[in-house]
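ingest -> validate -> predict -> emit
validate: passed (alphabet ok, no gaps, 455 aa)
predict: started
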Amino acid sequence: MLGRRASRLAPRGLPAGAPRPRHGARPGRAPGAMLAHRAIARAPRHSRRRTPRHRPWLPDGLHGRNLLYLLDLSDMNLRKFLFPFGFLLVCTGTAVTGLYLRADRLAHIPRSETSAAAQGMEKPPPLLSFATTALGGFRGIIADALWLRAGRMQEQRRFVELVQLSDWITALEPDNDDVWTFHAWNLAYNIPVLLSRPEDRWNWVSNGISLLRDRGIPINPSSAALKRELGWIFQHKIGLDSDPASPYYRLQWARQIAPSLLPDGSAPAPFSPQAARLSESARMDASVLRLFEQRFGSPIDWRSPFAQSLYWSALALENNPPARETLPCRRMAYTSLIALCFRGTLPPGDPNEPDWHFSPTPNPRLIPATQSYLEETLRLFPFAGIRYAYVGFLCDAILLYLQKNDTRTASLYHQKLQTFFRELGAGQQAIPPLDRFPETPPETYTALLQSLGIQ
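emit:
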């Protein structure tokens, strides 16, 4: 018993019963270190430094504060790490808690409380309901940060990574037309040029069409800009040869929409099974297609991409678009009509058959309605570009009727061309006679317009 007490009373580092060192010094200490030792002994308990405990679960050398230094999380670095991490954790917990508390309310939320853009939908997507209701005023801040990030990725040409980022932006700002047009342009134009196979390119172009047609326009049914952008993809990307794979795009589109149309490509009867399939697959109303065919005086082959651009631009004009969208939509409509007049009819039959080829032919029955539409547009917007388009259309119409040996109709359009230039101040002899008209190059009429001050 005494030995145990003596061992406890003995200084550390000395065996029990050993004499104390002189001058009060301990083994391994200098004599002058006694004062510092006593100062530490008198210090408060919370300020004393203690020997780190041995932690067998840590590797050698990583005991105590060494682990914090290894991770660069000691002292001030630890505070710098914990503050943003804690802030992010609090924000995440707040969002999750808000979503949990609002889950029942989001399922039965009235349309008047959701975003105005979502009111045109039968049932807004859950992500849109969450973004517009649960996030509240933070939507704008997050969307601005994502826009800045999207701009940097656009400059770095990281288009594939930009797809997911654009999806987030469309969920945060569904009623912003620029968000949808930016995203659709990236899908239909920027990404396909990075690929070599036409099949891969068509997948991305089709995704851009589906984004506007199936998501953007249903959320924003009164947006003329989205309909015009969708029509532009059909007209420029698919209809014209702006892409080396454009012939493949035209064939694939004809194969995709042909089962929803009549064998000649015209509109099906309203309320028929084909009309229901057309509404589901292409978001097109068969009754509206029939109205357009009656308005322009001829059946229209809706398998043509120019028919699609005509549909969406005319649909945009039906909703009284703003002034800045009226002229672009009308320009798309009359350029689509001109294209349908001279290469808008496809061969009958099923495009999915191996012997079917995309070989368009003219549709002269659309020429009178196209002429009237161009003259109406020219009265509303007397611009130089529309004058050039009108002159080019009259010249092509004259040549087409001459090829069909319809001299009477060709003479009527030849008189319209002479009247048009006479009103601009040109002489009677400026336009060659009808019998020498095919020999005159089209640049002659362009130079004549320029000489009259039409720039």
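The two ends are 117 Å apart (CA to CA).
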